[in-house]
Amino acid sequence: MKWMLVVLVGGMTPVQTDVIFEKLSDCLAAEEQLRKAYTDALEAWDKRAALTFERRRDYVRARQLQARKLDNSGTCIPHTGGEQPIASSRTSDQPASTSPMTSPATPSR
After folding, report:
1. Three-state DSSP class for 25?
2. 29 vs 27: CA distance, rounded Å
3. Euclidean distance between the first and the last CA atom of the chain, given in angstroms as a whole number
4. N or C: which end of the chain has fewer CB within 10 A?
5. Is the pLDDT of residue 89 over 50?
6. Which range is least confidently modeled, 19-28, 78-87, 94-103?
7. What angle do CA 35, 92, 80 make, to 5 degrees?
8. How confident is the model at residue 86 (pLDDT cuts 50, 70, 90)?
9. How far apart are CA 86 and CA 92, in angstroms?
10. DSSP letter at 93?
């Protein structure tokens, strides 16, 4: 079975990478590399930002925002070989109903 690495942006929204692995262990290693890259990026930002912010409160808020931006993780899913995109489980991504809307009935007097 083949495996595909998927990035979960913000920990929720799946984004296909089209990176396919023959073995699960290889995919898991790539997932770990992705996690380390985001951790390293946050640490590098943290070192620079610690010197630039004068007030601790501003630094804490900025760090929380930066951590959310880099809150991406990878996961390995079985690859079926098809070209079907990964569906998001969030309801806001689903299209609205296509049934025609009727106007509200007018009350009778």
Report:
1. helix
2. 5
3. 69
4. C
5. no
6. 94-103
7. 55
8. low
9. 15
10. G
Q: What is the per-residue pLDDT for 83?
A: 59
Neighbouring CB atoms inside 10 A of 66's CB total 15
**Residue in 37, 17, 33 with CA at minimum distance from that of residue 25:** 33
Are the C-beta atoms of residues 66 and 58 closer than 8 Å to each other? no
Match 């079975």 to its residue by tokens: 1
- Determine the pLDDT at residue 88: 46
The residue with tokens 């098809």 is 82
Residue 33 token pair: 């590399």
Looking at residue 106, its pLDDT comes to: 46
Burial (CB count <10 Å: 0-12, 13-18, 19+), residue 94:
exposed
- Alpha carbon distance 31, 52 (integer Å): 32
Token pair belonging to 27? 């995919």
